[in-house]
Amino acid sequence: xxxxxxxxxSAAFYGLAGAAIARGGRTARADNGLxxxxxxTAAGSLALWLLxxxxxxxxxxxxxxxxxxxLFLLSGVASMVLGRYGMYAASVRIGAIRTSLYRRLIPVFxxxxxxxxxSELPDPAVYPGAVLILGGVLLSLTxxxxxxxxxxxxxxxxxxxxxxxxxxxxALAYALRRLGLDLWPDPLLGTFLGAAAxxxxxxxxxxxxxxxPSTRPGLLEDRGPWQWTAAxxxxxxxxxxxxxxxxTEVATVALLGSLDILFTVAIAGxxxxxxxxxxxxxxxxxxxxxxxxxxxxx
Length: 298
Fold this sequence. Notes:
Largest sheet: none
Distance between the termini: 23 Å
Organism: Antarcticimicrobium luteum
Order of helices and strands: HHHHHHHHHHHH
InterPro entries: EamA_dom, EmrE-like
Helix content: over 70%
Keywords: Membrane, Transmembrane, Transmembrane helix
Protein name: EamA family transporter
GO cellular component, one term: membrane
């Protein structure tokens, strides 16, 4: 299978994961399988590292290796804790389709993050793409009927805010991982360390929570079919994305990966019917945001 095909299948898995998260949230009792998904990602990335990674540790100065490990761990907190938690929470509050649309903001947030942490100035052609993405997101927020506005709903408002914060966290995670890879160029090991950091974070938070143990739901409380579907497809999507990077250019993988929003629309809106199929306004917003992604990675 070519790298392009692997990237498209990866996007399909991410689309399926978003729909499964939204569906599982209807009956979830605790974290809707969030911790389960992190464990599955950690196991999958470790297996990939053992199969394809550099199992012989390089001869790096101790300070350089330690700095890289810290950066990988911090990237895991940003992506597995903040980013993935936001993805799960937003999918339940505002649906998989809108959450997937907000994920298009990741390359937009990557612009200031990349400048601040990596001193990278983007190509001038990137800015029109960012404007298109922002336009698509804003279009999705406009009232259905001109001159009207829906009654604010606290849960939905928080869902939009969480989705935006999740995109920012993912952008930060990419920059931190990039800094770590500059010191220790082993992406599979970095991914495993990040997932392990996320798992340890949630374990530590549970240990130090003030409530009594008997009143706290377990970290693996939600292990139904929808939670397992989300966990496995997120891990599969990430795995196939790495395999695609071995076969083709990063820009190609990033652009094809953004097709996940189209798969989310098809799966959540028409196949599973976990939410209403998108109307013309949301469909247009999706296409505008996707066009912006295409411009950025052209």
